[in-house]
Amino acid sequence: MEIKLDNVVLDEINEYLMDENITDLNWNGRELWLDDLNRGRLLSDKKLSARFVENFSIRLANLMNLNFNKHNPLLEAETDDLRISIIHESVAKTGRSISIRKTPVVKRLNRRIMIESGFCPEEICNFMENAIRAHCSTIICGLPSVGKTEYLKALSAYIPAHERVATIEDNLEIHFKDINPRNDCVELKITESFPFEKAIASCLRHNVKWTLLSEARGREVVHLMNNLSNGTWCMTTLHANNVRKIPDRIANMVGEAYVHERFINNIYAFLDIGVHINASVRQDEEITRRIEQICVFSREDNNNILSIIYEDGQLYPDKLTYEIRHRFEKNGIKDPFREGGWHETDQSGKRV
C-alpha cells in the first residue's frame, strides 16, 4: 500500500529528505545516521524528539491501517519516493528504530558517470550495453545498499523501446516508465492477492520480453526460470558477495523441494551474466561504488560453466564461453568490449 505523508509529519527530517545527496536515514533510538553520496556515512548532530518519533509512527500506522505495539513490533510502508521501516522499542532495546530509504524517480548512473567515477572501466560499460542488446539475462549481486537497483536502472536504458518490459516489485524503486518514457512497459505492484508468483506467470500472457524483478528472494525464482525457458529475458538483483555464489544462493532461496539436477542446470542454461557490486562506506568520506566481478554462465556439452571475465580491475576477454560469444555474434556484435553504437539518450533522444 502506497501512502502520502505531508511536511508536517516529516518536519524534523525534512531537510535531509530534500537533500539529493542523502540516500538513507537511520535512527537507532539515540542517534541519527545519514548515508551521503559525497560524504559517506555521517553522524548527524540532530536528535529526533520523542514527540516526533511517536507522532511519525502513529501517523504511519494510521495511514497503513495497522497496529504498531509490542504485539506487532514491525511497521513498514512506502510513499512515492520513500521506503520506511520502524521497529518497536519492545524488541529494539536501544530504542525505537527508524530506517528510511529514499527511492527517487531519478537515474543516478549513466555511461559518463560510471566511467568518470571509476564505477567501471569503459570496456565494461561497452560489454554490459552490448549484453543487453544481445538479450543476456543478468543478475546483479552485492550486499544491501551497494547500488544494485541503481545499476539495474542504468542497464534498463539499453532495452529497445519496442521490447515490452514488466517491472515486478513490492516496493516501487525501479520507476522504469518514468526514466524510460518511450518504452513499452507494464509496472506490476506485488500485493497479498497478487504475489510474485502470479505476477511472473502473468508476463507470458502479456507479451512481456523483459522481466525486471526488483530482488530475487525466494521461490518466485522457480517461476522466473520457467519464463526464461520460454525465450524471454530478465534482470534482477540478489544478496551475495561474490558472483561464484550466485548458483548456490539461488538454490538456497528456493528450498530443497525445488533443488534438483534439472533446476541447477537451468540456472546455467537460462541466466547469462552475473555482476557483483561492492561499496566502500566510511564515516565522513565519500561513498565509492564499483563493479568488482563479472561472470558468464553457460551450459555446454552437458557441463555447467561459470567463467570469470572481469575481477578486481582485470579483464579476461578470452574467458568468454562459446555460448555467450555466439549470442553476441547472432546480434551482430563481433567484439562486445568495444563500443557498439547503442547509447543512452535523454527524453529528447540526445545522447548522454
TrEMBL record:
Organism: Parasporobacterium paucivorans DSM 15970
InterPro entries, sorted: P-loop_NTPase, T2SS/T4SS_dom, T4SS_GSP_E_ATPase
Designated name of the protein: Pilus assembly protein CpaF
Top-level lineage group: Bacteria
Record family assignment: Belongs to the GSP E family.
Domain Bacterial type II secretion system protein E, first and last residues per copy: 81-276
Pfam families in the record: T2SSE (PF00437)
Molecular functions (GO terms): ATP hydrolysis activity
